[in-house]
Design goal:
By secondary structure, the chain is an alpha+beta fold. It contains eleven helices and 28 strands. Among the domains are: 44 residues; 91 residues, conserved putative lor/sdh protein from methanococcus maripaludis s2 fold (Beta Barrel), CATH 2.40.420.20; 107 residues, Beta Barrel (OB fold (Dihydrolipoamide Acetyltransferase, E2P)); 160 residues, no CATH class. The radius of gyration is 44 Å and the shape is elongated.
Length: 575
């Protein structure tokens, strides 16, 4: 009986053991599977990077520690599309707010906006002169803006010359019987002083000399300039006042040189005035100046207006708009300005490829026509009906750049693309010392560009030229001499260009060639006793990129200075 009980306990114990073993086995496999899946999901975790500095890799969104730009999501999925195409996940599209629209043809109309001011019509501006010399006894019009009418007395002049002429007239009267021609000659002389026949006859009859002479206005209008003051002496023909007839006025608009091809004489222009808000006026362009101002780079566009009620006052500011229809581009494609990435030399847009399982975009180089405010006329590169990225295009291009695809900014040419010979084993101590002087002179030059000091940078080129030109080539073999001369002549020529430059931008442009060829010299012959870092800025040289040398690994950008001091990366080291 005891043996039977013992057997039963043994059997239950055996069953319990096998149950625990199977459970552990099952749950262990499940846990292993879960761990494997978790590991896979970790591999798909999002990485955030900078469009301008791809070396930045972070596990959460934020700002680039180098340039401060917003980080973008790096797509780590395999992309088997072509070099001009890029695949983006749906989440990435939503995050970048990528929007598209259908390419279509429209009638191009360019809105040309101009600013100007009201001016008096030059053809209606006149001066009131003094017809006799003398002293201004009294001014009857004392301020600008006053209105005068033709024939109105505006001043009184005391004229000794006129008194003498009147005395001659009275003497001629006494001699009229003996010298009949003298009286008429004396009358004619007074007529030249603008005395009327009535005034002359009154002098003859009363024999009273007029000492103060009234000056009459010869025109009607508004006094725009008072030239004389009471008590002034004036000569015959001297201007007393400037008068403008404001029944008609001009508006002179400033048109930029780039807008002139779209404006022609006779075009309608709609304009408004700050002093008359809410009201628009329309007129035709009557004149376009054939001369462009050297300083402002604008040409004058004129319209003429009838100034009924004198609502248009000289000096008022006006805003004009011309809606120019571009007849030469009436059947071209027009796309929004936001769809274009412009590098200065080429323009890029992205097209969404239809029928793809994942959203796929293709980069297109396009030729731009005239700018239409917030849009462009497209000359080539796009077809009607294609789906164009109109918002978030920079994010798409950044994703292409980070994936190694063709993009707006990935046409960088590496210095190492050229096969550079290695002559360092044959470099003598004396040549190494000369290389050391050249390298130090280059670093001084580069440091002045980091500080954006154009004058000091130009001065440093003299030392660098001197060190290059004084190099003793007797230490070099024929092949080595040829390589040295080929590269050093390019450097010296660029340094001579710098001496003729005056702006920091011009100096930096020549610095590209100087650095590129000196890097090749130092790679071929060494840098003396210096360790040099070859560093690269992707935004320099109009986004083509450019290299420079530094003695420290920390980036100090010579192409932008304090504007983007830490923009760049170290690409190579020369020991």
């Amino acid at each position: 009986m005891k043996n039977l009980i013992k057997n039963k306990y043994f059997q239950w114990s055996l069953i319990l053991f096998f149950g625990l073993f199977l459970g552990k086995l099952i749950f262990s496999n499940s846990t292993t599977s879960e761990k494997h899946d978790h590991s896979s999901s970790e591999n798909l975790n999002t990485i955030w990077t900078c469009a301008m500095h791809p070396q930045i890799r972070l596990d959460k969104p934020g700002k680039c520690p180098i340039c401060g730009m917003d980080l973008i999501q790096l797509n780590q999925n395999s992309d088997n599309s072509g070099s001009n195409t890029i695949e983006l996940s749906t989440d990435a599209l939503q995050l970048a707010n990528v929007q598209t629209s259908i390419v279509k043809r429209e009638k191009p109309e360019k809105e040309v906006r101009m600013y100007g001011r009201i001016e008096a019509d030059e053809r209606l501006m006149q001066t009131i002169p003094a017809h006799i010399p003398g002293r201004i006894e009294k001014l009857l019009v004392n301020f600008t803006g006053d209105e005068v009418v033709k024939g109105q007395t505006i001043a009184i002049i005391y004229s000794p010359t006129l008194i003498q002429a009147q005395q001659e007239l009275l003497e001629a009267k006494k001699l009229a019987n003996t010298l009949p021609g003298a009286l008429e000659a004396a009358r004619e002389k007074l007529r030249e002083w603008k005395l009327t026949d009535t005034q002359i006859s009154e002098i003859v009859n009363t024999e009273k000399i007029i000492s103060n002479f009234e000056v009459k206005s010869t025109v009607s209008g508004i006094i725009t300039k008072k030239i004389v003051n009471q008590g002034d002496y004036v000569s015959q023909g001297s201007a007393l006042y400037e008068v403008s007839d404001l029944s008609n006025v001009w508006i002179q608009f400033d048109a930029y040189e780039s807008d002139l091809p779209w404006i022609k004489q006779g075009d309608k222009i709609q304009f408004s005035l700050q002093s008359i808000p809410g009201k628009n006026f329309t007129a035709n362009i009557t004149f376009i100046s054939p001369v462009i101002d050297d300083f402002s780079r604008v040409a004058k566009i004129r319209i003429e207006l009838a100034n009924t009620g004198r609502i248009f006052k000289p000096g008022m500011f006006a805003t004009g708009i011309v809606n120019a229809k571009l007849e030469n581009f009436k059947d071209n494609i027009i796309i929004p300005r936001s769809a274009v990435l412009w590098t200065g030399k080429r323009s890029v847009a992205y097209i969404k490829i239809p029928g793809m399982q994942m959203p796929t975009f293709e980069m297109r180089e396009i030729d731009l026509g005239p700018e239409l405010g917030n849009s462009y006329v497209i000359l080539s590169g796009l077809q009607e009906g294609e789906e164009l990225v109109t918002n978030g295009v920079f994010s798409v291009d950044a994703a292409a750049q980070l994936s190694g695809k063709t993009s707006m900014m990935n046409r960088n040419k590496e210095v190492k693309d050229e096969i550079i010979p290695d002559y360092r084993k044959q470099t003598s101590i004396k040549l190494a010392n000369q290389l050391n002087l050249i390298f130090n002179a280059y670093i001084q030059f580069k440091n002045k560009l980091v500080a954006s000091d154009a004058n000091s940078a130009i001065a440093e080129t003299q030392n660098l030229s001197k060190q290059l030109e004084s190099t003793d080539l007797g230490f070099l073999s024929g092949e080595q001499q040829v390589y040295w001369l080929t590269k050093s002549k390019l450097v010296i020529a660029s340094l001579k260009e710098i001496k003729q430059n005056s702006t920091i931008d011009e100096v930096r442009k020549s610095f590209i060639t100087v650095s590129e060829n000196l890097i090749k010299i130092f790679k071929a012959f060494g840098t003396g006793n210096n360790k040099a870092y070859v560093q690269f800025c992707p935004m320099a040289n109009q986004n083509i990129g450019a290299f420079w040398l530094s003695t420290e690994k920390q980036i100090k950008n010579p192409f932008y200075g304090n504007m983007m001091l830490t923009c760049g990366e170290t690409r190579d080291t020369i020991n």
